[in-house]
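ok so heres the complex, four chains, lmk if somethin looks off
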Amino acid sequence: MTEENTAGVVFAVMTEIGIIAQLSRTALEARLPDELIAPHFTVLNHLVRVRDGQTPMAMANAFQTPKTSMAYTLKILEKRGLIEMRPNPEDGRSKCVWLTDAGRALREDTIAKVGPDFAAVVQSFGLDRFVEMLPHLRAFRILLDENRDETGISNRGEMP
Amino acid sequence: MTEENTAGVVFAVMTEIGIIAQLSRTALEARLPDELIAPHFTVLNHLVRVRDGQTPMAMANAFQTPKTSMAYTLKILEKRGLIEMRPNPEDGRSKCVWLTDAGRALREDTIAKVGPDFAAVVQSFGLDRFVEMLPHLRAFRILLDENRDETGISNRGEMP
DNA sequence: CTTGTTTAGTACGAAATCGTTCTATATTGA
DNA sequence: TCAATATAGAACGATTTCGTACTAAACAAG
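and the predicted structre for the whole thing:
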């Protein structure tokens, strides 16, 4: 926890981010339907946030998660009618993942429900500090995203 | 992704934090011994960062994770000789978790190995931005930590 | 065109995570 | 004191996550 050196600061930031992610994951799951867990929502959110029509492999890559894990998550989302899997017209091997109206609606509802849970915390923290942090976090995430694959992890989808 | 309203900003920050946590989790696991995964390291780190000698229940609470999951993680760490479980002298029901020298050493080694992986990213991002963000993240994490249990999740350890 | 190589997805078994239930100890309150 | 309740951990089965092996389609080189 020393902050005198680069490694210390970076590690401390990562630790804080890890804890925050864990706590908000719990808060999120408390607001999801019982049958769904965080990864399901994360996938729905990704499809809205980036774009839908992506292949499962591209999504596994985006999430740095094994393709078999992604396949399992997608299968459940499809069973629940929250996404649709259609064949990829440009590649007979792969499929494309599309959101259904129900999928979009569930994402919206969940966001609306989780918001108030954070309201008290955000108010005492100060919205302006959030606004201030957001572009930095975004920039850092983009950098991290670009610079990965330097740590060699297989089975997690290669760059498209 | 709109940033015009409170909920939008908060949700956007959470999304970025979630992605960063996921990416750094992958980077961390790439540097851990093959038999160990992120939760193992996270527990070791927690025991150094907060204090060791805690009960499994207190740790499950800290991680917002079911006590059975924590028990499983601890069993593996104990089997690997990275922690020791001793009876709690103040409560016959519970145990206390203590780090071994090997556990401390593994944490140190891992931090030393992961650091360089982030060096390039941090350099182009700017260390000063990290230093700037750290206290905000820490303050937010502490607030989140204090304000939880408003979403009612059972089985994840009550406050000690 | 072949033929060998790469890639997307699937099958399947192993490992991790989780919820429920059970046991032993502690705590509370008559 | 002692019964009633609450808590920590263990046991156990179910679900999720993951790694390896396999299949089918695309691609590359000749």
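quick notes: Residues 37, 39, 65-66, 68-69, 72-73, 76, 91-94, 154-155 of chain A lie near DNA strand D (CB under 10 Å from a C1'). thats all i got rn
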